[in-house]
Structures are given as structure tokens and as C-alpha cells.
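Archive entry: two folds, one per protein. Generate the first.
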Amino acid sequence: MIFHIPHSSTYIPEDHRRVYKISADQLHQLMISMTDTFTDELFGAHTAPGDYKIVFPVSRLVLDPERFLNDQEEPMAEIGMGVIYTRTSDGELLRDVPQEEERQDLIRRYYVPHHQTLTRAVDDELQTTGNTLIIDCHSFPSRPLPYEKDQDPYRPDICVGVDTFHSPPELCKAVQGLIHLAGWTCEVNRPFSGSIVPMNYFQKDSCVYSIMIEVNRRLYMDEVTGEKSAFYSDCQRHLGSILTGLHRFFQTL
């Protein structure tokens, strides 16, 4: 399996901080709300021998690897949250629209290598086993942020994101069953939807499976301070049982 962890990093290169139009305190608070904090640990602790763990090295506030490069194809670009964010989660100015030279530099430094790594992992798994499963690893705030389309205050414990081509019904059913066995609630494609697949394989190769698992942050952290809560270990353990079960199930496909 391939564990794809795109939004866990809080690292912003020092020479990049000058582009932001908000204060250091505002940037810190934005980082807490927008980062899938600790997902590299929550999910990464459960990789098995032979699994891949691909973690994006910088904050999504620098560049978001899960956006389409072309803003014309990326719906979030309409609100200033395309591949390079220019707006905060509140819709305030985060930074000016980058000049083309800076845009291409960021893409070359971060976006391209990340997607090359993901594609190579899929290539390797297909050559080795004939199929592969990407787990798109995320978390989400317990209350909707202003930029989010889904403003329903009720949010499940786990959001399962699926793709009609790469997430077959039997996979979705298995994941939901494992989540319920862990004692958690879940919904499919709510409050977020979809799951990443490299463009070389997207809607082309049915041997590439993908499913997104998003953990509600109330299950493991203090959303004000950004620190782990007393429930962190329980959350990590339950998530481990889900991922172990998913690993076993995938071997039957």
C-alpha cells in the first residue's frame, strides 16, 4: 500500500515567509487550522514492510500538492486556494499572486518531485504485485472553516473520500465496516470528497485503487493550541486497526 500524506508539514522555508501579508501570530493560527497535524504519525506508524510513505515536505501554505496545476481546472482557485494559496481560510489576503517565475520555481522545487515520487511508487507496486492501493491520509477540523463548501455543523468521526473509477464498492464497504468496528461514525465524500491518483493512471488503470481517509481532529488534538490531546493514543490505535484490516482486505482483491 502507499500512504500519501500531503498536508502534515508545518515547515515554511525562511526565505519564503517574506511573501505573506499577515502577522506571525495570524500565520501561526492559520497553520493550526489548515494543517493536517500529526497525520504523518497517526498513519505513518502503521505502515507495513513493503509499504510506501510519501510525505509532502513543506506546508500547504507554500504549495498544495493536491491541486491541479492549471487554475482553470482547479475549482479552489476561484477562492484563492489553487496550487499556490493567495487567500486565507477566512478569505483574507495571504500573499500576492506570484509572478510566473516564482510560481514555476515553487512547482519545480516541490510539486513535480512529489508527484514523481508518488508515480514511481505506483509504478513499482504495479510491477511487483499487479495492483496498488493509495491511502490518501488527511484530517479535518471539527467545525467547518469559512472557505469550505460544506458548512453543516455535524461532522462524522471519519470522512471516506472515494473516486468512482479507483474506489470500487467492495473497497468502500470494507473501509466503512472497519471504521464502524472501531466505534467511529463515518460518511462517504463528506465533508470532503475524492482521493488522489497520479495523472498517468487517473481514470485509466483500474488496478490502481485509491481511497481517502480523513480523521476528525476532535478525536486526537486540541484544535486551539495544535497540541495532541489525551485521546491521541486511542485514536492512533483505532486507526491502526482500520489500516491493518484494510491491508488484509486489499490482499484479497
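Generate the second and append.
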Amino acid sequence: MPVKLFDLVPQTGGVFFSPPCLRTRLALIHKQLPFEVEEITYHDLRFIWKDRLGVQKATAPIIQREDGSYLMDSDKIAAYLDKAYPDRPNLYLPDSSTPVNLDSAEYSSAKQAAAAEIVNQLHERIKEATANKLGDQDLFFTSAIKPGYTDFYVLCDYRLLRSVSPKLACDVYEADERFAAWLERMKQAYPMPEVWERDPEA
């Protein structure tokens, strides 16, 4: 059976707004894995998934792996996907054309660099970060020519704001031409019409 992603919505049929869930969706697409999506709500997390997973507090995203077991937390899911599917494009080293040794210093360094980038990406600094990172020849945040997990974090922050106010997301992020161009490249790489079409009108 394919991987199943449990993606958080405010109510059934509502907007996909959760940055961690979108990161996992992007990771699954990036790994070129077939997957299904099932919506879950905060109510589901509290009254169904808490007991099902045997945890004190259930959070989204959750995936059901091919063996039927569950895994929670976007970063744990990303690490699992790279480990379980080494022959698929790597999340932290997207330029690699061969399977990446997950115990290598290069992979560890790439994960640490991604974590450091994520921590430092405050909303107030996005334009400065965009100017510094997407200048010259660089097309993406993770690497010069291919998107990766750091790009997913940036896109998720943008998506969270857009799910609340498309105009504000445009004012804050898309006013910078480099970011707007990056956003278009991300939309082409990962179209996800089922996500974008649920956004409120601008």
C-alpha cells in the first residue's frame, strides 16, 4: 500500500495551512513516492490519534508507512524517508545523483546546515535572506540548481501566511522579485493544485 499522509485542516474540506504538513507533502513529492492524503482535524488529533499512537499529544503530520506503522513529526519523517528510500532523490543533498550515505559527514553537515538555516529564518529577515541567498546564479535556498528541505521550510512559512491572507503574503514575500521568481520555480517543481486551490481569495 502507498504511504498515507495525514494532513491537518481546520475542518473537513478546509484549507491546508500547516507548515509541517506541507513540508512532509513536499518531501514525499521530492522523493517521487506515490502517496495518499487523508485530512485530519485538531479534534481528530486529540480524541483519535492521541490514543492510536499512544502519545500524550498527537501532532500533524503523521504518515502511515507501507508496512502499516505510523510516524509523527515532519523532521522525523524526512529522516525516515531518506533512510528508507536511499535510491530516491535526497532531501538534504538534492544535487546527489547517487544514493547518499546517511552516516557520512557530508549528509550530517547538510542536515545541520538546514537546521541552522531554519532556526535563523525569522519572518522579519526574509527579504534580506532572499537577497543574500537567491542572488546571482542561485535558484534555490538548499542548492544553486535544485530545491531541497530548506526550500520546503521557506515555502511553508509563506504558505501559512497565505492561507490566512493572500494579500499579506504577497506584500511580505512576493514584493521581492527574487522571492517571487523562486516561488514560481517551486510551484513548477511541486505544483500541488490540491493545496493552492483551497486558499482564500486575494
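Annotation attached to the second fold: Residues 105-120 form the longest helix (16 residues). The chain is about 50% helix and 10% strand.
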